[in-house]
Design goal:
Layout (H helix, E strand, L loop, with lengths): L4 E6 L5 E3 L19 H11 L7 E3 L5 E5 L3 E7 L2 E5 L2 E2 L6 E3 L5 E6 L5 E5 L30 E3 L22 E7 L8 H9 L2 E3 L7 E5 L14 E2 L4 E3 L7 E3 L6 E2 L3 E5 L4 H4 L7 E6 L4
Parallel strand pairs: 12-20
Antiparallel strand pairs: 1-4, 1-11, 2-3, 3-10, 4-9, 5-8, 5-10, 6-7, 6-9, 12-19, 13-14, 13-20, 14-17, 15-18, 16-17, 16-19
């Protein structure tokens, strides 16, 4: 096997390969997938000299540890965490040289949920439908990392960035999601619609890459009939039978049979990727997406 690779020493709770996703295949029932915090994935790629579409690792809460087979430049961003090489602390949010055979340990998130790890040359797993992203809903792409797995790396084509630390937004202490009401807000009572945009919700521990689940007031439906399955988009706020909104994220299904009360602005979704369970949520109605 080529020396442009790394082995997984500690896979972490859920670590996946992600890139820009496989947009344009919803008609085949294939979700977009891709990094939940797209701006951070793009930033760490820039720091190591990669193109924006290069694949990175997305960790969840517990981080991961890997051992490259050749010297590689690495950058870690997103959820703040301790980063070490062979046990010695190195910079978070900046390019770091990791020698061949050294242990790169990305620690547990100090705040936030997901950290992103970019390697110079990008992770070169085989693309599926034009993307290297792991899709937890359909099973497309590489499986989540497991201890002992070996992943290939591409060849670097550019020099890494010359920065000490790249500024990044802090994980949210309150998640403010701007929404455009509809298309099925008329399936809910007027008091329910008012409650949706005025009452406090919080992030549920049951959230994942498919959807951000919420805890808070249940929304009462005005129409109780069955809704035929229809297409749903990234950021759609679907309301299941328990009445508590679910914000669809990157691995969401392409159709759904529960009414969508609103759609979140795309620009607000990266912050949702870093909102820990219990984070307060406010849904704010706006006229246009």
């Amino acid at each position: 096997m080529t020396d442009r690779a790394f082995s997984v020493v500690r896979a972490g709770a859920l670590t996946t390969v992600q890139d820009l996703g496989r947009a344009g295949h919803a008609h085949l029932g294939v979700p977009r997938s891709g990094a939940l915090d797209g701006p951070t994935a793009a930033l760490v790629n820039r720091l190591v000299g990669n193109a924006p579409e290069a694949a990175v690792l997305e960790t969840t809460l517990g981080g991961c540890a890997v051992r490259p087979r050749s010297t590689v430049t690495v950058a870690v961003g997103g959820a703040p965490c301790r980063v070490t090489v062979n046990g010695r602390p190195v910079a978070w949010g900046a390019p770091v040289r990791v020698p061949a055979g050294a242990l790169l340990d990305v620690g547990a998130a100090v705040s936030g949920v997901r950290s992103y790890v970019a390697f110079s040359g990008g992770i070169a797993v085989e693309p599926v439908l034009g993307s290297r992203s792991t899709d937890l809903l359909s099973g497309l792409g590489p499986p989540p990392l497991t201890d002992g797995a070996v992943l290939p790396l591409g060849r670097p084509t550019r020099l890494h960035a010359r920065v000490d630390v790249a500024p990044q937004p802090a994980p949210p202490t309150e998640l403010v999601l701007r929404v455009t009401l509809g298309p099925r807000d008329d399936w809910f009572t007027p008091p329910a619609v008012r409650a949706f945009t005025s009452r406090a919700y919080s992030v549920s521990a049951a959230s994942n890459r498919i959807g951000l689940r919420t805890e808070g007031p249940a929304l009462e439906r005005a129409l109780t009939s069955e809704l035929p399955s229809e297409g749903v988009v990234l950021g759609a706020v679907q309301v299941p039978p328990d009445g508590r909104p679910v914000v669809f994220l990157a691995d969401h299904p392409t159709t759904g049979g529960y009414p969508v009360i609103a759609v979140v602005r795309a620009a607000d979704l990266p912050a949702a990727a870093q909102a820990v369970p219990g984070t307060p949520i406010r849904f704010v109605a706006v006229r246009h997406r």
